[in-house]
Amino acid sequence: MADLDRYRVAGTGGYRSRKLTRIVDTLHFAPSHASRLVQAVDLVTFLFQRLEIPGTDPRAAAVNDQLWALVEPRRYHSHRWNPMAHPH
Question: CA-to-CA distance for 22 and 73, rounded, in angstroms?
Answer without folding.
Answer: 25
